[in-house]
Write a structure and sequence with these properties.
Number of helices: 10
Largest sheet: none
Number of domains: 2
Number of strands: 0
Shape: elongated
Radius of gyration: 37 Å
Strand content: under 5%
Order of helices and strands: HHHHHHHHHH
Amino acid sequence: MSKILMPKATAVWLIDNTVMTFEQISAFCDLHILEVKGIADGDVAAGIRGADPISNGQVTRDEIEKAEKDARYNLVAVSFDASPIPASKTKKRRGPRYTPLSRRQDRPDAIAWLVRNHPEVSDPQISKLIGTTKPTINSIRDRTHWKTSTINPTDPVSLGLCSQMDLDEAVKIAAEKKAKLDAKNAPKGDQGDALKPVVDAPVAEAPKTEHTLESLFKPATSGG
């Protein structure tokens, strides 16, 4: 079975959101049964935010429903093929990402993190990445959002609002656009004089002296 990302955080979510047994959660998250019981009692993993394995792509909703109906059923994680997926078989997600109701309260923290750490990422990109709106982004940027005093900028990946792959792709696209724009707007040096051909300055001719017999044979006078 594939290793589960953030096993304790996943166990927290399964305990809070499903009726799966401790044994099932223990097997799926690869945690000791006593550790799972400790999480349920609040003695272990206190303060850890639950990580939804469905939105993270680690398990399907159908699998969880099977486990809830049969206490003997062992949850099967989604296995990922290491080989690359052909581009023709991938589907581009259009429009804003759907955000589960339980995660929507975390979006202001994610927006603040993106605005602070990746100002090159555009508002439409942020909206698509974590499923928010432009007015919300603007209110957080200009500090008029009603939660401004309690906002704690947090990585959207750790909040479960998007995948690391989606975040990296958004940052890469934004960086490339910024680089092209900077290159386009870069000030160009004044090359007017440099492009002009070099023209030799005319050389002044020495005045011509007309010689006469008297000037040619006249003895030179000594100075003094």
